[in-house]
Amino acid sequence: MHSGNVLGQAEPPVDRGVARQAARWLMRLGSGHATAADVRACDRWRASDAEHERAWQRAQSLNRAFGLVPPAVGMAALGRATDKPRRAVLKAMVALIVAPPVAWTAWQSAPMTRWRADYRTAAGERRELRLADGSRLLLNTSTAVDAEFSDATHALWLREGEIYVETARPAGPPLQVQTRLGSIHVRDAAQFAVRLESQRCRVDVASGQVELRPAQPDAPAAWLGPAQQATFDAGAVYPWRQSDPRGPDWLRGVLHADAMRLDAFAAELARYRPGLVRCDPAVAALRISGAFQLDNTDGILQALPALLPVQVQYRTAYWVTLGPADQA
């Protein structure tokens, strides 16, 4: 059962009361204690009004994208939300469900292919896997990867996010990493990172050699060796530079900033926590330096006013804005 414009482009805001009901249903059904009667009751509620279904679809999309309703807090039963974690999640869900269309446009940038991928991570999650050919695969935050291993093909499809690969000397076909912008082909054993962004793909090689092949057939390929980094899009590979032979900082759980603009820092930090981190244009050009522990994004946000003339404003636990410090 789907409304025709679930993530609508010019639809009116969802009624707050209906949004609250949708959030409560989602928490009930996601608690791990829902009964068949609960599921049927939710279905009846959804079918009773198109606005109910629209709010439900928004609630589900938000939960898939941001992981707002873990089972530990999912027992916010209808008519009961008595402890702080449950109330906080409920408040956040309602605020996001009723958000204006411009916010929904931003959230749609996280493609639903993440949730159908063979391997995936949520915001803030990192994961390590051993592949069929013996290669080691590490997934950074908000990443989606499909895999195919057969006699003829050893391939990964990076749909979204960032990975680090340590390949063994191939006993079968050489490993290749495919993206929508082009592909990375491995020669013998190699260790390398791939980060897929909206317009470009960045590759960092720690050891071995890899070949970058942009998607356009007439685009020239390029080889990268140890401690080299390059970016490419569908039409070209851009000049390489030196990179850290230890691999990217996220492998060590660190976000490293070297005179980074605050808006860029906020965008990077947002990758590692559910919800949104926005930066007011008035403070966007401020510069920040340091090494920050990715497992404690709340601590990073709390420390910012001591480092820069900013204040951190929480609309909810999942909606954070960095703005100018009070002048008073």
Features of this protein?
eleven-stranded mixed beta sheet, 7 helices, 16 strands, 26% helix, 32% strand, globular
Give structural notes.
The protein is an alpha+beta fold and 328 residues long. It is built from 7 helices and 16 strands. The chain has helices spanning 16-29, 36-47, 50-66, 84-97, 101-107, 262-270, 297-307; strands spanning 119-120, 127-130, 136-139, 144-149, 154-166, 175-179, 182-196, 201-214, 222-224, 228-232, 241-242, 254-261, 276-279, 287-293, 310-316, 319-324. The strands form 3 sheets. Strands 1, 2, 3, 4, 5, 6, 7, 8, 9, 10 and 11 form an 11-stranded mixed beta sheet that branches. The chain has a 3-stranded mixed beta sheet with strand order 13-16-15. Helix 3 (50-66) packs across helix 4. The chain is globular and about 60 Å long. The termini are far apart. Mean pLDDT is 82; it is low at 1-10, 70-82 and 106-112.
Percent of residues in helical segments? Answer: 25-40%
Q: How would you characterize the largest beta sheet?
A: 11 strands, mixed
* SS-derived structural category: alpha+beta
Unreliable stretches (pLDDT < 50, length at least 5) are 1-10, 70-82, 106-112
